Amino acid sequence: MVLRSVASRLALGVLVGSAAVLVITGGLLLTHTRDQMLRQTEREAAAVADAAATRIQGRIDSVAKVAQVVAGVLGTRRDQAPSVIHDVLAVNPELVDVSAAFIPRDVNHLRPEDAPVARRDANGTLVASDRLADPEPYWSAPWFVRGLNCDHGCWQPPFRSAAHNETLIGYSVAIPGKDVPVIGVTDATISLGWLQTLLGDLTKPDHASAFVADANGEFLAHDWRSYIGTRGSKPLLDAIARKQNPVRITPEDGGRVSEPVWVYFVPVKGTRWVFGLSMPERRVLADLRRTYLVDGLLGVLALVGVAIITLVITRRLMAPLKVLANRAEDVARGDLDFELPEVRRDDDVGRLTRAFDQMRHQLAGHIETGQRIARDQARMASELEIARQIQLALIPEAHWLAEDGRLEVHAALRPASAVGGDLYVYFTLGARHVCVMVGDVSDKGIPAALFMARTITLARTIATHARSPSDILGALNRELCKGNDTCMFVTLLCGVIETETGLLSLASAGHEQPVLHAGGSAILVDVETGPALGLDREARYPVRVLSLLGGDTLLMYTDGVSEAHAGNQRLYGTHALLDSVARIDEGANPGTYVERVLEDVDAYTSGAPAYDDIALLALTWHDTGAEGARIHAAVHS
Amino acid sequence: MTLIVRNESPTPERSTVWLEGSLDANSFSDFDETMRDITPLVDNGGTLVLDLSQLNYISSAGLRSLAQLRKQMHDRGGRTLLLNPQPQVKKVFDIVKAVPVKEVFASIAELDQYLDHIQRSVTGQG
């Protein structure tokens, strides 16, 4: 697609825009020039028409003069009429005939002198005759009656002469009498052939045709000879009547023309004639068309030139942008390794190119950083997974049943993330004691996990020779205080049970109270706590002693259970925990306790990810044969 | 919930810090950083009072921060005293005992009395 390039679109836009401007201004110019040419032609036509009208006027004025002179002479010389008109005709070669007609004194005795006629025949010979032989009595003929009323002369309608084979026209003047105003009519006739000749001799614009029309609108003379004697078209006659000069006549309007014409006309003074000049519009505007065509071609040429220049300049300016567009597509595909053209310009394109280059380098840097971080994260995730496995290896099996079957332990550890700070551990102390611990290191994550590992390892070592939970916690505390500048600490509940008697000693280092399920009810065992391990070297830990009966279960847990919650939910709480334990059938094995409590906690948080690590240990004493009262005692070590 | 820490030091001997909100795994590092700027303002052997009346929650991570703060002050011969904790926070102190119970006071009067007693025993007037 050519138009995908900005340069082409710009060039096309300039071309189209300029063309629109050219068409509009061209249209206005055409209208203006057309009006001017029409006015110019009108002025030329008016000049021609005026000149023609003046010449026609001069010619007919001379005829009128002759007729008036003859009328004046004959007023007193009626009897000399034949010789007078003969002489007048002889000295006025343009006249075809001269006649006089008097009102007859006695219609029954007409004389040749009453209506003499001097006529020039086809050979130029003068012939004298009279009107006595006319088929119609001359004194009642229309021309005679009309002539009697023309004191100052008037033109008769033209008529066709068979003898001369041409159109003639007569000028009549009434002959004044001595006693009466009018005694007859004198008439001088000329051929309209001269009028036709005059039209042909006129200096007219090319393609113009001239005509003379009389008062009735009939053409007396016309450059188109076939029109002579016919009436002008209705639009022409209407325009003459309204003096609408010039007038445009078209074939559609009913004009007797083959194409639109402009008609300019001038009245001929002394007559009711009109001289007209008709010019085809096509010819009038032929120059205009030619000029306009040339101008239009030049305009189009200029437009194409401008478009080409725009295209070339824009292409040159936009060339670096095209490269940038291609490179940007490379970037989009992830390919950042390419060369950009050297741009020294300080314009927008130069700035864009340099910025693009910097952006590419920065992007490459970011991608590399991102990849490195992703690699580090993957490595850390794998390290964390290994750490998790190591941490899980530190704690004993989830289930343990003493060899004699009296003591059963079940535990669970669920770190909130890969590794955690909660712990449980149980181990035998000699042949007759078992030690159980549940602890919670402050905070979570890797530091907590490391501290948890340290705690478990130390606990296993230290407890070997001790028999009291108080001693175990005390020794463990002193070890953990060493070098503990970060003040990490662990809360720990430690129990030591005599496997033969079910006697359970408990000591707590800041840990949650355990739950005892005995005799069908679940209660919190109130163990006075000492400080959490790792903070106070001098700390002491009181011991609480319980005597377990067969079927009793002790549940040790961390705050991951008692403070379980999701979002802004209230904490799970020890009451809920007690309810959960109370619902468990007495005599159930410790695995059931662990399973049910975890189920209830998960149900409470709707399975949302845990905020904190969870450690849970259930210990069940199975000695059904044992009898005796529960011992409640606190022994201070 | 976030933690807001405000500080006022009328004298180099005694500076009071107000904690508001929740001191837990999300906020303890900010708290540690803030306190790193505040503790140097207290003289060696001086007293840092943490007013906990507006502290709504404290987690084990928060306890560790307080314990660490107390240890740092202790190393410089100073004291860190906790003032007026809310019941749920007080309960945590009571169970975990991360800070000695005798360094937690219910009111400023109690705290002043304690400090007065300490000073008198030091000068031998008690």
TrEMBL record, chain A:
It comes from Luteibacter yeojuensis. InterPro entries: Bact_Sigma-Reg, HAMP_dom, PPM-type-like_dom_sf, PPM-type_phosphatase-like_dom. GO terms for biological process: signal transduction. CDD domains: HAMP. This is HAMP domain-containing protein. GO terms for molecular function: phosphatase activity. The chain crosses the membrane at residues 6-30, 292-313. Pfam families: HAMP, SpoIIE. Keywords: Hydrolase, Membrane, Transmembrane, Transmembrane helix. SUPFAM superfamilies: HAMP domain-like, PP2C-like.
TrEMBL record, chain B:
PROSITE patterns: STAS (PS50801). InterPro entries: Anti-sigma_ant, STAS_dom, STAS_dom_sf. Gene3D superfamilies: STAS domain. It comes from the Bacteria. Pfam families: STAS (PF01740). Residues 19-115 form the STAS domain. One of its GO terms (molecular function) is anti-sigma factor antagonist activity. Belongs to the anti-sigma-factor antagonist family. NCBIfam families: ant_ant_sig. This is Anti-sigma factor antagonist.
